[in-house]
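Input/output pair, single chain:
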Amino acid sequence: MLSAINLTIFFLWLLSAVIDYSEFCYIWQLKEYRWDRFRDFLSTKQGKSYWVKYRLLWRSFLAIIIFFWPVNDILTIKYILVILFVVDLAQNSHKVFRSSLTHPKYTIKASVIIFASILAEGLVFILLRDWTIFLLLLICRFLTISILIIIINRFSDLVKKYMVYRATEKMLNYKNLIIIGITGSYGKSTVKKFLHHILDQKYHVVSTPRNINTEVGVSEFVLSTDFTGVEIFIVEMGAYRIGEIALICKLVKPKIGILTAISEQHLSRFGDIKKTQQAKYELLK
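Output:
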């Protein structure tokens, strides 16, 4: 029934859902939608403090109290939902005022993830037709988007493999291109920047931009770059698992490898320093 209060709840819910899923997607996008990178983030001080934010802890705490409160009147529950969504709106408005409201770069993948999360939440409510289910859905939003990301990643992995294949085939056309790979626990981007500046005095040099250092990132850059006349291609190589640098090497086939340094700062990714060494040495091998 399209009553005034139902419409109010719908618009407040939609606004709340868009903002929530956008922020959650922003975090996942920063970590390239990868669980290993997200797990690494959670082990940091910033990651641990992320769980005590309003939308993850305090709103969930309020929702649980309201859910178990002995209220059976539907209209009362609707008014409680309005109040809860208004609190959401006030909290988000405060973040807008402070310019701290986050959202992802709206790529096709990010847009699909956000839309699918909102649609899934809406369909659950429509199927169950229970107003109190809104409270549980609020608590489960991060879980909802995480599950959808896992599902979508299954399909996007196929696209990535095709992208890597095309980039590998393209690189075969540049037999005379000198490719320099750079890896290490730290200092990769700095060495790349200085090396590019030095070599650019004499040669036509191209290097991967910013912190693009994954197999997919390098593939995207290769496919979008015209290497006609380029003499040297500098490729930064990062890894979160053993075997990832070897995949980038298979893609670009470097003739020169630079290892900056190996430290214990990424032990959360590899488990111990020996595995870190094994991953980084893939470039030298």
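The first strand starts at residue 178 and ends at 183. The longest helix spans residues 141-171.
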